[in-house]
Structure formats: structure tokens, C-alpha cells
Amino acid sequence: MGQPLIYLYEQMKEEQVETIRQSAPDHIIIDAKREVPQIIEDDIEIMLGWDKDLGQRLLDSKTSHLKWVQSVSAGVDSYDLNRFAEKGILLSNASGIHSISIAEHVLGVLLAEFRGIRASIDNQSKKEWSTNNISYQQLSMQKMLIVGTGRIGQQLAVFAQGLGIQTYGVNTSGHVTNGFIECYSHKNMSRIVNEMDIVVNILPLTDETYQMYNERMFLSMKPGTVFVNVGRGPSVNTSDLIHALNTGQLSFAALDVFEEEPLPENSPLWTMKNVLITPHISGLTPKFKTKLLTIFMQNLKQYLTDKTLAKNEIALHQGY
Length: 320
Hints:
Elements: E1 5-8, H1 14-23, E2 28-31, E3 44-48, H2 52-60, E4 68-70, H3 81-87, E5 90-92, H4 99-114, H5 117-125, E6 143-147, H6 151-162, E7 166-171, E8 182-185, H7 189-192, E9 198-201, H8 215-220, E10 225-229, H9 238-247, E11 250-255, E12 275-277, H10 288-306
Parallel strand pairs: 1-2, 1-3, 3-4, 4-5, 6-7, 6-9, 7-8, 9-10, 10-11, 11-12
Helix pairs in contact: 4-6
Organism: Candidatus Enterococcus palustris
Family: Belongs to the D-isomer specific 2-hydroxyacid dehydrogenase family.
Domain D-isomer specific 2-hydroxyacid dehydrogenase catalytic: 7-310
């Protein structure tokens, strides 16, 4: 093996690259978005961001020295976690960076629906002064079930409680978490979901969460439930979702993620009046790369010390 490489697939500012270089003087820093010199790929030890083609070659290589990948997203379902585990590659995510943005997004789409803002936008486009098509409700005192009580879920609970929303949570074991009146386990979710007015999905995609929102789950909800998905698209069976919206089992859905992205032009969701579509933007965050670098540098310092990570390490067998 030659001199080990840190491969920056996520483009950083020059001063940020220099910060990494000073912290890892024994490594060659490759800024892949600017210029890639001829390198021996197997010498890559650390990757910031994930180059799918290069990453697959490294996973397939018997002589690769890849030891750690820092993901730029919170979700890691696009990674071959089994291969990471087989090859002993560490994986960390960007959990925590998007918490405020996604929490604000959820409340934004809910307020747009509950306060008649969506209908007002439609009226404005037609230069129509009318309240005939505007319905309104209060978010205050609504029961919100937040499915996923990690950092994003906890941040949403704090913001939601500020509006007087009653927040309940779902997590793996049902353990109590700050910011929630009560928490339930995944296996008990269908038993209590019929008491909720709003259901918000923030779960990562795993074998257990794949298409968990299906006909059976939607029928477990009380008629007229509001559904928000800012987790992962494949957690939802789209056909069953459309049916639930058409029958009134769901009164409204705000969808930021989908089974297939971009959402196909022929999807019925585009023209449904009780659906709000956003193009996977809930996690867009100001100063994202600065926040990402903070996580990466904490992990880099720890990794160079003892080959472990300080923050956001993924449990590969669990998927989060």
C-alpha cells in the first residue's frame, strides 16, 4: 500500500480541505470535485461522500484499504451494509444536521393545509377573492404521532409542543424519550395509531420499515387522519396510500419522499387535491457543509487516534 488517501467526493471549500489536510498530514487529500490525479484506488482509506461507481469497485476489490465512509445524509439505505460489515468498513452518517430543517418543514406543510394557505395560493393564481374553497382547523390540541423519535423526531416534538400539539412517539422498543407524552414500540403502533389525528413518518428504511405503511396500517388509522412522510419513500405502499386518500381514510397527505424519485409524471398523486408534493427538500439546510465538516472532523480525529468513530456511527446490522 502506498500513502493512504482521503477521498472527498463531497466538494468542500479550499479552506475546509486545508483543515482536513492539516489534521491528517500522513494522508493524501483528493478533492474529487475539482481535480482527480492518477491514484491507486485501493489506497483510499477514508471517503467523505459516496461515489457509487468507485465505491462499488472498492467493495469488490480484494486489496482495497477502505476503512471508513462518512455519509452526507442521515439515511444510509443506499449503501450495501452487508458488504460494509463483511469488509469491516466503518460508516457514519450526517444525523443531527437536518433536524431543525425537517421539523420546520413538517409544521410548514401542516399549517399550509390546516390554515387554508394552500387553497389561498390556488385562488391567488386565478386572481380569485373567495373563501368558498377554504377550510380551516387548528393545529393546537391535535394528537401527533411521530414515528421515529431520534434527533429529528425530538426536534419536531419540541417545535410541535410550542404550537400546543400533543406529541406521541414510536420507536423500536417503546422507550420513553424526551418531548413525548408517551412512546410505543413498532409492534404496538397499529394498536394506538387510531387515536391520532396526524401521523408523521421519519423512520430510516430498513427491512422492518419497508412498506410498513400499507393498506393494513392505513385502515388502522381513524378516518380523516393526516399523513406526512419525510422519512423514506419505500416505507409507503403508494397504491395503498392513493386508495386511502381516495376513500377518505386519509384526509390529507404531505409527501416529500416517494417510492420512485423523481415522482413519475403519470402518478395520480400529482393531481390529487388532498396531496401536497415537495421534491425531497425537507432536509435542505443552510450551512450544510460547515455542519457536515464538524461531524467529519470529530470522527477523523478519533479515527486517526484509535480507528474508531466519535459520532454517528451506523450499526450496520440494524441499518441506522
